[in-house]
Amino acid sequence: MWQPNIDTISGPRYQAIAQALALDVQAGRLKPGDKLPTHRDLAYHLHVTVGTVTRAYAEAQRQGLLVGEVGRGTFIAQRNSTDVYFQPVPPPAGMIDMSLNYPPPEPLAEAALRASLEELSQRNDLSPFLPYQNYRGFESHRASFAGWIARQHRLLVDPQRMTITGGGQHAISAAMAAVAEPGDVVLSAALTWTGIRAIAEMMQVQLRGLAVDGEGVMPEAFEVACRSFSPKALYLVPTLQNPTGAIMSENRRRALAHIAERHNVAIVEDDIYGFLAPNAPAPIASIAPEQTLYVGSLSKSLAPALRIGFLVAPERFQQRILASIRATTWMTPPLMAEIAMHWIEAGRADQIAENRRREAARRQALARDILGLLAGDAARLGYHLWMHVPAPWRAVDFVAEARQRGVMIAPTEVFAVGRRPEMEAIRVCLGSPDSIDQVRQGLLVLRDLARQPTDTRYLAVV
Questions:
Q1: What are 361-366's contacts with CB under 8 Å, separation 24+?
Q2: Where in the numbering of this chain does the HTH gntR-type domain appear (predicted)?
Q3: Tens-digit pLDDT profile for residues 305-346
Q4: For 398-420, what is the mean pLDDT?
Q5: pLDDT digits 0-9 by tens, 370-391
Q6: Nearest-CA neighbor of 295 among 271, 319, 330, 266?
Q7: Which CATH code fits 13-79?
Q8: Domain 125-347: which CATH number of 3.90.180.10, 2.30.30.30, 3.40.50.150, 3.40.640.10
Q9: Helices 107-121 and 348-371 sit at what angle, rounded to 10 degrees?
């Protein structure tokens, strides 16, 4: 019978039980399909009321950890491994969430929104924002976003090849729908953004991971995969790769672009973090524009809730992109695009982006100061860092113990495509905590934990 130790977990007892359950799922001590004790049995063991256990199970079920079957009992849910680590809701009281790669708070964004809404309220030409509109979005919005991409991402794009989307993830989904069919092979880095795995699963395409080095995907691995699997696309984050934080050199970008052209493999280039690295090489789309579907978004640079992304693609993909937009959202709300354009044209967007760059650099500097060599050697520009945990820690156990101490992070496993890489590392997100003081507290917990020997309860018997 599952018998958690909740004595070291602060907060209400029902939350402590739910948190202990989440930790044991993360560490693999509870597996999908495992049956949990009855409410009465667990209450007796933990010396709490049956009502406390009922509330704890309800909280765990809300998080997707449990399923209840009438007449049979309560079981650990079958679920995607990433769901255990990423809960896009406010973290439990007292927890510092460094698992989600959010941008840091930016007061100017709220002021910009207020100014835009005030200006819109004085206009007498709002009727175009109410009916159905062109799938691609307004021409004025696409022209404004093209200017933004040129300034912030160092890429000249044709607005006629741009489709406005409901955020970057929507743009990537539309790009994937344009280049691949169910059963096709799509390539990515062996460690990559978790969302592409979810998209690949939804679209029933085969996602295969490629070997990486300090810059990202290795050309030799891409070449071999092109000859072996006849892939339809390669998904890349060349600037501030998620999760490793790597930035590809221009030579690496050219090498991958030339291989893609030679084998006619589309490149889906995710440049969502490009604005954070103004001195990085230009996007691959500038090297191979007819081979690249370029994805951008305002979520990390301006505000996630605007839900504005953009997809710039070669002409041969346009009809399938529009079919995907029509089948999913029909169009991106033009009112949100109008607000984003207002920020851009008024100069507020550039200031917000600059503020975000400064805050990211400030938090990265703090991380280097506290963690030292543990912070790794990736670029000191992004919202996250890739921290290698010292032996004999396993990443998943380090994450579980960090959560016990009030810090939420994510291990190597959730970013791996295919076979798990032989490394023990965690992604630490510096942008999601509300304040620099919370960042400092979280980093100190991780540093102190890394300096301590592994807790014997995490040592596996093999």
A1: 362/436, 363/104, 363/430, 363/431, 363/436, 363/439, 364/430, 366/436, 366/439, 366/440, 366/443
A2: 11-79
A3: 999 999 999 999 999 999 999 999 999 999 999 999 999 999
A4: 88
A5: 999 999 888 889 999 999 999 9
A6: 271
A7: 1.10.10.10
A8: 3.40.640.10
A9: 160
